[in-house]
UniProtKB/TrEMBL annotation:
Function text: Component of the Mediator complex, a coactivator involved in the regulated transcription of nearly all RNA polymerase II-dependent genes. Mediator functions as a bridge to convey information from gene-specific regulatory proteins to the basal RNA polymerase II transcription machinery. Mediator is recruited to promoters by direct interactions with regulatory proteins and serves as a scaffold for the assembly of a functional preinitiation complex with RNA polymerase II and the general transcription factors.
Nucleus recorded as keyword: yes
Subunit record text: Component of the Mediator complex.
Protein name per the record: Mediator of RNA polymerase II transcription subunit 18
UniProt source species: Extremus antarcticus
GO terms (BP aspect): regulation of transcription by RNA polymerase II; termination of RNA polymerase II transcription
Keywords of this entry: Activator, Nucleus, Transcription, Transcription regulation
PANTHER family given in the database record: MEDIATOR OF RNA POLYMERASE II TRANSCRIPTION SUBUNIT 18, MEDIATOR OF RNA POLYMERASE II TRANSCRIPTION, SUBUNIT 18
Compartment annotation: Nucleus
Family: Belongs to the Mediator complex subunit 18 family.
Gene Ontology, cellular component aspect: core mediator complex; mediator complex
GO molecular function: transcription coregulator activity
Main location, first listed in the record: nucleus
Gene name as annotated: MED18
Length: 222
């Protein structure tokens, strides 16, 4: 899959106003959003995928397990590549999201030789949809430490902890997801739709391309 993304950031003081703007533009009410993210460090490298490549030549990454407690969804593994270089108007990032069966979840449990738990956090906010553009307005909240394996601990349906960003600002993400990012025609259409959406918000919300290396999922120095 390929995600085409634009971002913005707004102050807490503008939050209600921005939700009203997006509700008017999309002709829909904001849908509550809560995502639980577990972050794991890769310990064991998989077999080399390229001819002549040794495991030592590969770089370890952070992997995210994600679920939406309000929807009682299963854990999904999200793997993201470094966003493509040279793309000026949007951020283009190859991603894989798969629902993990119980057997695969074992690789992320305590004592596994594959992954080591690092941290967890929540994304809480609201979501809008217009055409193929999905818009999330959210903040990151640190999660309280749990006494058991974080995969098995029941998640709350709302988060009351202070946000990670002490200024209280919100992040806006506008994304179009393509099942096949290699199809030029579909990619061009998706890009036009995302840019048209951003253009319709000019003067109210400034959607822009972030630093691509800030979204590098690899662990430095490994």
């Amino acid at each position: 899959m390929q995600d085409l993304i634009l971002y913005s950031q707004i102050s807490a003081a503008r939050h209600t106003q921005v939700l009203q703007i997006l509700a008017g533009l999309t002709a829909s009410q904001p849908a509550p959003l809560l995502e639980q993210h577990l972050v794991f460090e890769q310990i064991k490298l998989p077999p080399a995928s390229k001819k002549g490549q040794t495991p030592q030549a590969q770089r370890r990454t952070y992997q995210h397990l994600i679920r939406r407690p309000q929807e009682s969804t299963s854990w999904k593994l999200r793997k993201a590549e470094v966003p493509e270089p040279g793309v000026k108007q949007i951020l283009s990032q190859s991603v894989v999201e798969i629902t993990l069966p119980e057997a695969e979840l074992g690789k992320f449990r305590s004592g596994s030789e594959w992954y080591k738990f690092v941290s967890q956090y929540y994304l809480q906010g609201h979501q809008f949809v217009q055409g193929n553009v999905v818009v999330m307005v959210n903040r990151v909240y640190p999660a309280e430490a749990s006494s058991g394996d974080p995969i098995d601990v029941d998640a709350p349906t709302t988060v009351s902890l202070p946000p990670l960003d002490t200024s209280g600002s919100y992040v806006i993400e506008a994304c179009v997801r393509l099942e096949d990012g290699s199809t030029t025609t579909l990619r061009d259409q998706a890009t036009k739709e995302l840019l048209a959406f951003a253009d319709s918000l000019k003067g109210a919300i400034d959607l822009r391309v972030p630093d691509r290396l800030a979204l590098d999922p690899r662990i430095k120095g490994t």
